[in-house]
Amino acid sequence: MTEQSGSGRITANDVARLAGVSRSAVSRAFTPGAYVSRDTRAKVERAADLLGYRPDMLARSLTTSRTFLVGVITTHLDNPFYATLLQRLIEEIQRAGMAAVTFIADETSNDERISQLLSYRVDALVLTNTSLSSKMSVRCARGDTPVIAINRYLEVDNIVSVTCDNELASAAIGKLFVKKGRRRIAYMAGEPDTSSSRDRERGFRAGLSELGATLHSSAVGNYSHDGGVRAARELLSSSVRPDAIFCANDLMALATVDVARKDFGLDVPGDLMVAGFDNSDAAAWATYRLTSVDQNIPGMVRSAVEEIEAAVVERGRMRRRVLIPPTLVERESTGGPKSIDEPKYGS
Amino acid sequence: MTEQSGSGRITANDVARLAGVSRSAVSRAFTPGAYVSRDTRAKVERAADLLGYRPDMLARSLTTSRTFLVGVITTHLDNPFYATLLQRLIEEIQRAGMAAVTFIADETSNDERISQLLSYRVDALVLTNTSLSSKMSVRCARGDTPVIAINRYLEVDNIVSVTCDNELASAAIGKLFVKKGRRRIAYMAGEPDTSSSRDRERGFRAGLSELGATLHSSAVGNYSHDGGVRAARELLSSSVRPDAIFCANDLMALATVDVARKDFGLDVPGDLMVAGFDNSDAAAWATYRLTSVDQNIPGMVRSAVEEIEAAVVERGRMRRRVLIPPTLVERESTGGPKSIDEPKYGS
């Protein structure tokens, strides 16, 4: 650091002297996870505060193999599920004493961003709602950088995938529609080339089939509200209209409720039952009361950060899939309770 | 770096030799903003790719006074305005060749997070939707770390505040209500101790007053949907009910429309006009068609990143307020057009 940084000249030795503790006690007080007594920590913090000392993470990274930086790549924060997932993930990374270097990239193309993150020597890389090219997977493996994918299952080596059990939850929605007497049951897909959309369709079909029903029709809404409007118009314009639609996320399901009411004059759930996925805040709003699947975001990010910590310590080859149990939340849009949220275990 | 990192041993010299260019050409190819011909860049990238070389930002930061890291502190990503602002800000930081270290903190308490960011020697600190304590302001100034606040105006030294012109836009909504013949006009505040909520109330009152009207009633909704539900019930339960409500953000305005229709059987805009702030995606949904203010997020983040770049180069003391012109978007909730969005300059 140049002389421009006034506080750069205060060292851990100065803090140790003023606090009356050892140099290594100062170091431990500023190392995430290291033990130091409460009394010593208080002395160190008081002295550091008086002197304006701050530990230098960059200098430390030259003497350890860690930067305490975690690279996070995400996308489409206009989707509330992605935004909430990012917030909880960053909070969990903070709690573990690390910091998130966050990049935005496309769902499918992010090689340049990953390159940039590797140049910061991140301890690990977390991909949420996005994929990893096989070329990048090789580069991460060569540099021993662990990669954790959240909400995507990636068929490449050296990766841990953390997702909710998309198939189980989607099967539960299929069975719910059949039990409620619906017979013309449709599916609205998200981005067709994502594992989440494929797994939800597979599970939904399996649930229907288990009770002797089959899929009536389907359309692609690309996980967006606009895409949902278009796909809902397509499905509802059919000469034999569906009487139930499972949308692969809430944004598309909310759009479907609007289109059914405004463009087709339908009653939800009377004429058309609608279910979504994500249990976003808007699903609980009085206008929608949308049945949805809670993916358990806190459980997903906790698992992801545990995997980071294990991988940073072990630096081993890994390829694992972690499945988080989701919860079905039934509301009025499928004939569920009018106002009280009754979380129901996916059955 | 330890020997665990395989690619750490490939140097810029290796890349220069393979690419047949000078060592300094390799360095320039990886320095944001530095000039290098397209042909040379292609050679360097091909060689770097073959060798698995990546520039080491940490080593570089020891020889320059920069880390190319920008600290970002934000909050409440369940508010779509905050989520979209964060996405655009990170994208703009990426475009400028830097990376965002992102933390989540409370609206009012974030000292510990700022401390942590300073330990990463960030080039600058950006606060979105959150404040800076005067103690921290002193620490940032002492370390010569420039601070940029977005969507908050902070009354402390050494800070650039970038906000939309909250007063101008709010005055336009006040005048719109009066021109549409409304006489019992209410305000729903956000977080009472934020500059955005205070500026919007001040502007709204000024707009009413300019056309000879005064505020009928007000309530506090704390910028959240739940808070908006409570505040709307409070305002609409009054024996003399308001016939127009300006809510300081869209989340509260959407809640107000739901409460007016579902709990009080009112027609919007017939019985009650509602306007919000942020022009979030949901404001355009068919169910709401909500009049709102577009804050021009791209303009805000562009200004913020320009301020970062100027501050990093100049390292001067600064205290400035940048005002971005907002746009009023009139929709059905105030008697505006039924389906086509007509952005109208705040007049």
Automatic annotation (TrEMBL), chains A, B:
Keywords of the record: DNA-binding, Repressor, Transcription, Transcription regulation
Keyword DNA-binding: yes
Boundaries of every HTH lacI-type domain copy: 10-64
GO molecular function terms listed in the Swiss-Prot or TrEMBL record: DNA-binding transcription factor activity; transcription cis-regulatory region binding
Biased composition (Basic and acidic residues): 329-347
Record region (Disordered): 328-347
Pfam families with a match to the protein in the record: LacI (PF00356), Peripla_BP_3 (PF13377)
Keyword Repressor carried by entry: yes
Name of the protein this chain belongs to: LacI family DNA-binding transcriptional regulator
The organism of origin for this protein: Arsenicitalea aurantiaca
